[in-house]
């Protein structure tokens, strides 16, 4: 049986300034095989078979989450590496990472317009949240205005906030919540091993 671990943070609502920055940040961190978490944790260290990031925006708040599925013996090594990647995002994000994630997110938006059900759902959501459909050019402008500085600033604020930790499976070696929270709050250094 594998362990399933989720780290959650308060995300951004649809109508706030950092909504699209959060969407792109989740792509940089864990939105595919070229993402930071996939490359560092799965490919380089082989610590899990599934790792990804997500951001869901709602009308008044959002959820920014990181999910990892791993074996019982890899939890102790996995969590500090995962937290370290979150901290690194608050220190530096490359322009190439931003450009790649922005292109990936734009492609997803455009492909969703090809499916009538997805298009109707997107328009309905925009009507509920904004009172009007959002023109595709306006969406593209919002994405174009994102900068590396804005994403690193968002990362610093997001990943030093109090997390939510949920885990199921053989998670006896998972560090206590307080250790995870303290490690995130201390942006200066990341311990190689958290107290269990």
Describe the structure.
The protein has a domain at 3-96 and 149-185: Metalloenzyme, LuxS/M16 peptidase-like (Cytochrome Bc1 Complex, Chain A, domain 1, 2-Layer Sandwich), CATH 3.30.830.10. It is globular, with a radius of gyration of 17 Å. It has helices at 19-30, 36-44, 75-91, 95-112, 116-130, 136-144, 148-159, 177-185; strands spanning 3-11, 50-57, 62-70, 164-168. It is built from eight helices and four strands; from the N terminus they run E-H-H-E-E-H-H-H-H-H-E-H. Helix 1 (19-30) crosses helix 4 (95-112), helix 1 crosses helix 7 (148-159) and helix 2 runs antiparallel to helix 3. The mean pLDDT is 90. The chain is an alpha+beta fold and 196 residues long. 52% of the residues lie in helices and 16% in strands. Strand 2 (50-57) and strand 3 form a beta hairpin. It has a four-stranded antiparallel β-sheet.
Short structural description:
With 196 residues, this protein is an alpha+beta fold.
**Sheet/helix structural class:** alpha+beta
pLDDT averaged over residues: 90
Alpha plus pi helix count: 8
Question: H/E element string?
Answer: EHHEEHHHHHEH
- The total count of strands amounts to 4
Question: Secondary-structure blueprint of this entry?
Answer:
Elements: E1 3-11, H1 19-30, H2 36-44, E2 50-57, E3 62-70, H3 75-91, H4 95-112, H5 116-130, H6 136-144, H7 148-159, E4 164-168, H8 177-185
Antiparallel strand pairs: 1-3, 1-4, 2-3
Helix pairs in contact: 1-4, 1-7, 2-3, 3-7
């Amino acid at each position: 049986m594998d362990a399933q671990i989720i780290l959650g943070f308060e995300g951004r609502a649809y109508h706030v300034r950092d909504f699209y920055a959060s969407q792109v940040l989740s792509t940089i961190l864990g939105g595919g095989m070229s993402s930071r978490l996939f490359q560092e944790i799965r490919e380089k260290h082989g610590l899990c078979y599934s790792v990804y990031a997500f951001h869901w925006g709602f009308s008044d708040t959002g959820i920014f989450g990181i999910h990892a599925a791993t074996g019982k013996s890899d939890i102790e090594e996995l969590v500090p590496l995962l937290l370290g990647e979150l901290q690194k995002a608050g220190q530096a994000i490359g322009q190439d990472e931003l450009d790649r994630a922005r292109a990936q997110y734009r492609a997803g938006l455009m492909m969703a317009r090809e499916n009538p059900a997805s298009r109707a759902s997107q328009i309905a959501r925009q009507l509920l949240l904004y009172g009007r459909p959002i023109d595709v050019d306006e969406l593209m402008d919002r994405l174009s205005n994102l900068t590396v500085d804005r994403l690193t600033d968002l990362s610093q604020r997001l990943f030093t906030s109090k997390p939510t930790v949920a885990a199921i499976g053989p998670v006896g070696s998972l560090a206590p919540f307080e250790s995870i929270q303290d490690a995130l709050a201390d942006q200066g250094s990341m311990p190689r091993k958290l107290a269990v």
